[in-house]
Amino acid sequence: MNNALRKELQRSLDREQYDITEDGLYFPRQGVIAKGKYYDRINDGEWSCTDNLVVSEGLTHMLSVALGSTAKPAGYYLALFSGATAPAANWTAATFPSVAQEITSLTEGYADATRPVWTPGAAANGSISNSVAASLTITTATTLNVTGLALLTNSTRGGTSGVLVSATKFASARSFQNGDVYQIGYELDLSA
Question: Whose CB has fewer CB within 10 Å in the chain, the N or C terminal residue?
Answer without folding.
Answer: C
